[in-house]
Write a structure and sequence with these properties.
- The structure is a single chain.
- By secondary structure, the protein is of the alpha+beta class.
- It has two domains: 74 residues, Arc Repressor Mutant, subunit A, CATH 1.10.10.10; 183 residues, GAF domain (Beta-Lactamase, 2-Layer Sandwich), CATH 3.30.450.
- It contains ten helices and eight strands.
- The strands form two sheets. A six-stranded antiparallel sheet has the order 5-4-3-8-7-6, sandwiched between helices. A two-stranded antiparallel sheet has the order 1-2.
- A hairpin with a 6-residue loop joins strand 6 and strand 7.
- The C terminus is likely disordered.
């Protein structure tokens, strides 16, 4: 569809905004025009409009243009009004749609994991519901094991000293050696599997949600029966989840890259 003049002006404004943001320093008009691919006369008109509305400045001596601190205010306002659930719920829905399995979002809460959001697979005869707001020991869930895999060796040693590792089912990994072997596997594969370790007959696959510095601040998981999630289907399901997370990183990393989990809840 052909864009009208108004839409073209808006597109060009965003091109200028992105050019100035990624350059990271005051710029000459001609440089802004060249890097954004916009005629200098058009760029000047848009910059003047941004200045009038408080979104840009021009140094009277150097004539260089820069973005104003008003963008900081806008960014802070967005942060204050976004929760982790709001930010990621769309991606939970996408994973649930692609896998036809119930999907959950979890965060670490001390030595436990807490589920804070979910999307139920409504087309399954047997549906998995998560206990939102309740906390579970890290070693008993796929999400919790993802958080354990992201801990330093010293932090995990402290965890093992405090946690009793009581078995919940005959398949619960309740020894340090078993858990460490599984955590190495998680680090290699990039995802965790809970194979009837918390509830017999149930499986779960969890992937980390990482900040820009590589820290795990949340996990996303899918859950189902051992017939809904077979051993053979695990790699493909994990790959499907990973593709949705790649989209999440592309679209949302600028928003949450410098945010702490506590700020998002």
């Amino acid at each position: 569809m052909e864009k009208n003049a108004s839409n073209q002006s808006i597109d060009r404004m965003f091109q200028i905004l992105e050019t100035m943001t990624f350059t990271g320093r005051p710029m000459r008009l001609n440089d802004i025009a060249e890097k954004s691919g916009i005629p200098a006369s058009t760029a000047m008109r848009i910059l003047n409009a941004m200045i009038e509305n408080g979104y840009a400045n021009q140094n009277a001596e150097t004539q260089l243009y820069s973005l104003s601190y008003k963008f900081l205010w806008v960014g802070n306002s967005i942060r204050e009004n976004l929760s982790l659930n709001q930010l990621l719920h769309h991606y939970l829905q996408e994973i649930a749609k692609r896998t036809n399995l119930s999907t959950a979002l979890a965060v670490q809460n001390g030595d436990t994991v807490t589920y804070v959001d979910e999307v139920i697979a409504t087309h399954q005869m047997i549906r998995v519901y998560h206990h939102l707001g309740q906390s579970f020991p890290l070693y008993t869930t796929a999400c919790g094991k993802v958080f354990l895999s992201g801990m330093s060796r010293n932090d995990r040693n402290r965890y093992y000293q405090k946690e009793s590792l009581t078995p919940l089912t005959p398949k619960t990994l309740c020894s340090r050696a078993e858990l460490e072997a599984d955590l190495e596997k998680i680090l290699t594969l990039g995802y965790a599997v809970n194979d009837e370790e918390g509830v017999l007959g149930m499986r779960c696959i969890a992937l980390p949600v990482n900040s820009s510095n590589g820290e795990i601040f949340a996990t996303i998981s899918i859950s189902g029966t051992i017939y809904q999630i077979t051993q053979e289907s695990i790699p493909l399901l994990a790959s499907t989840m990973r593709s949705v997370l790649a989209k999440l990183y592309e679209e949302c990393r600028p928003i949450f890259s410098h945010m702490q989990t506590a700020e998002l809840l």
